[in-house]
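quick one, 338 residues, struct below
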Amino acid sequence: MTELFLDGTAIRELSSSFWCNTKLTVLDLIGCNKLNIVGKKLSDDHGLLSVTELDLSGCTEINALSLWSILDGIQSLKRLKLNECVNLECLPENMRNHSMLEWLELDDCRKLVSLTELPPSLFSLTAVNCTYLDTYFTQFSLIKNRAEKFFEDGSIEDEGVIDAFSFLPGAQIPLNFDFQTIKASISILPIAKSDLCGFIFCILFSEGFTVNNHVLHCIIFECGKEVDRRRISLNYLGTLISDHVLIWWHGYNIQESGSYDCNLSFQFILQGPNEELQWSTEGIKGCGVEPVYMSSSISKEIGKLKSIAQDSDVSIAIGGEGRSSNNENEDDKEQPFY
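---
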């Protein structure tokens, strides 16, 4: 047995028999609202070595202590879902020990007030409507981790690895973004093509926006011609109770022909859950763009980020030469061309 689905059952604990299964990869406990007590592992148990995906969404009795016990018995976790764990106020300290964890969902954990040190392997984090969290530095540290991996091994963008992103409460585009506007599209000043390897994008969504599986499209234009497009599915079902910030990393292969500098513009537009629905920018309060360069100076900047992260809660952009732009373009209301 490699997958076990116990969603909606009255299970109260994970007995010792769970820890003996060495083939289980997916454990689904959605809506097990009586689950709290975790059975003790036997001394010769090796833990759930093979489990890579664990879903505890809607387990309303789960708290930091019980979650600590569960995580202590899982060694290979890559994806963890804790949505609507309404009694979870903080994450256990052993979360940082999960060096393979890449995806963490905390949507509607509305009592959550703090995030422990997260593992550097993490590149996707959502905590929609967790309004007590101070998320300003967390947002950028995730992208820093992803950029650092890119610098270490540029081939990861060719392996189909999903782009890093975070979707967290936030009231503004971080000041570290050299290019930002209160519109849903922006043209930036000419930037150098040399060593340009990607961008960090930021979108500010307004309180009251109903997400409901919208798809966000980022369309990149060079000299007015579309040259790239990226889409991110917003899988949250519900309405934002405060402003939220979406930040993600996008590796970008710049068009090599032409001049040394490139003139780029970016359009962000939402598509409804059904293809026939009209495209819209409603709910987008602003956007930001930060270019990322592959150079020795960036490596130094990452080292500085690591040291500052230990002493400060101020985020630092991983950018190239900073040249601010006050361009506030009019939104393009027409449907993008496919």
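The first strand starts at residue 3 and ends at 5.
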